[in-house]
Amino acid sequence: MSKKIAIGGDHAGFEYKAKLVARLVSLGYEVKDFGPFSEASVDYPDFVHPLSSAVESGEFELGIVICGSGNGVAITANKHQGIRAALCWNEELAALARQHNDANVIAIPARFISYELAEKLAETFLTTDFEGGRHQNRVNKIACS
User: Which residues contact 6 (CB under 8 A, 6 or more apart)?
Assistant: First the structure.
């Protein structure tokens, strides 16, 4: 396995992020934590932009971003042409984001789901492959450039 995973977010996602890093490392993933590194209030773009650039460049295969609603981190990540960030709150959405949209970043809403579900979403996202086929043409049309 040994996929390289980038993870980051904001203060609202800090606790889930810290637990997820430990969980993913225990499963054999190579994980880089882009921050934040405490629950002190921060601006999520300061962490999500570097994470997104690292995924976009291919340095990391997939990314996980976590904030209170998941929206701010998803919107920020999606400003990068090579990022397809999907806000997910159940396992089916996490799987479909990979299968049909070739999403390379999952956005998790920490204030709206349990940590146990966040863990399941991350694991589903990381272990589900893009189906290609009829979905590839659609994915090819997403970027503006």
Answer: 31, 32, 34, 51, 54, 55, 59, 60, 62, 63, 64
